[in-house]
Amino acid sequence: MEYKKINKNNITVHYINTDRFKTISVVVFLTKKFNKDDIKYGSLLVNNLVYSSKKYNTKNKMAIRGEELFGSRVSSSFGITGNCESFIFSLDFLNPIYTENKYLDESLDFLKEIIFNPNIENNGFYEEYFNVLKQDLISSIDSIKDNPNTYASLRYAQTMYKNTPTAYTTLPSLEDARSLTKENLYEFYKTLFDGSFKYNIVVLGDTSDDIIDKIFKIFNNVKSSDEKLLFKIEHKYNDKITTKIDTLPFNQSKLYVGYRLNNFTDYEINYVIRVYNTILGTMNDSILFNIVREANSLCYTIGSYYSKYNPSLTIYAGINKSNYEKTVELIKKCVIDMSNRKIVERLFDSAKKTINTYLNNYYDDVTLQINHYYNTEFDTVEDIEKTREYINNVTIDEVLSLNEKITLSTIYMLKGDNSND
């Protein structure tokens, strides 16, 4: 594998030349500091751009063009990562060495068409498709309460991360969605190119350096921000423990218990917490699984995850509402047990093996590799083998000491009132 990083006019291209895959991927990341007012535009904008363009002005024509290019496809998304928001456009196409050289330029032109030549009429997105996609968005927002996992996760985030970007979902409020017009969506679209966003483009595949020049030519007239951005959220949180219970007519209840990670060093947030979290709630033989589910039969599912950019640890469980108090009590005990040397020692080696197995997947996962190089622009990120080295060098004492910096912050439950217990 060969890696190059090239910057021109504040646009950065990350070039990963590897023969491991038969496809070539070109992913365009447009990133800026999070602004909650942009949420109402995000999902609807990316959906309009990939639905049709000026040249391929129906959904069918768009699909046909992709098939003509041997299954080339452009996908798009709007996301929130830590303190930043991003619009992402991903082009994946069969390496032209298996077809004809012309398909490199034609596939790149397909990406260019979708990003720069939207289906616009009368200073707004094409009305018929805009209205279809707007109604789809409204339906998605309306249906959130029909999915207990999604709704509980959203409400937990709003409670745990209040007044930070992590408290928001990429879906707007119903009021904001209904207020969108094809004209104001187009006005927002134009801000993608006016210097508000920082451009990072990742190219991965077995190809020549010529593709770099072709990429810069496509984005030659774009203004890219030179603002220094970081994913990590700097925020002073209230030390008070928040408890909140919502009720909806589901059979199962969803429980979230959130802990703050206080004053973690870079080493602790990148490596030690990863081992800690694997022992606590990720591996098959985790403490939470053994104690809460297997030994006490209090939940259907249970696990844990941590947030690096808004430092926190979250434990989630699917339970019956009558088991709420007992489950919370045992979850707290499991976290305390992470200071128990005998318990941690028993699972320590297995946790490292679990993490190493996951790290092995990196080499066969296009998305992991692309995101890795993109993330280096906004965070301190080690290469995968350096990460493995640090993980393998984490000590039991370092894991045991983390509880000194972990404090309970939020207990949230979405109580299912249809259950009989």
Rounded to the nearest angstrom, the radius of gyration is 24 Å
Number of helices: 15
Q: How many discrete domains?
A: 2
Oligomer: single chain
Broad structural category? alpha+beta
Give helix and strand order, one letter per element, not per position: EEEHHEEHEEHHHHEHEEHHEEHHHHHE
Helix percent band: 40-55%
Largest sheet: 6 strands, mixed
| Overall geometric form | globular
The end-to-end span amounts to 57 Å
Strand order of the largest sheet: 1-2-8-3-5-4
Secondary structure tally: strands: 13
Mean pLDDT, as a whole number? 96
CATH topology type of the largest domain: Cytochrome Bc1 Complex, Chain A, domain 1
Tell me the β content: 15-25%
Just name the CATH architecture of the largest domain.
2-Layer Sandwich
Top-tier CATH class of the largest domain: Alpha Beta
Q: Which stretches are poorly predicted, pLDDT < 50 over at least 5 residues?
A: none
CATH homologous superfamily annotation of the largest domain: Metalloenzyme, LuxS/M16 peptidase-like
Molecular structure report:
The protein has 421 residues and is of the alpha+beta class. It has two domains: 2-218, Cytochrome Bc1 Complex, Chain A, domain 1, CATH 3.30.830; 242-416, Metalloenzyme, LuxS/M16 peptidase-like (Cytochrome Bc1 Complex, Chain A, domain 1, 2-Layer Sandwich). Helices cover 42% and strands 24% of the residues. It contains 15 helices and 13 strands. It has helices spanning 39-51, 59-68, 102-116, 127-142, 148-160, 174-179, 182-190, 210-218, 266-282, 287-295, 324-337, 341-360, 366-375, 384-393, 396-400; strands at residues 2-8, 11-17, 23-33, 73-81, 84-94, 120-121, 124-125, 198-205, 242-248, 253-261, 299-307, 312-319, 406-416. The chain has a six-stranded mixed β-sheet, sandwiched between helices. The longest helix has 20 residues, at 341-360. The N and C termini lie far apart (57 Å). The model has no long low-confidence stretch (mean pLDDT 96).
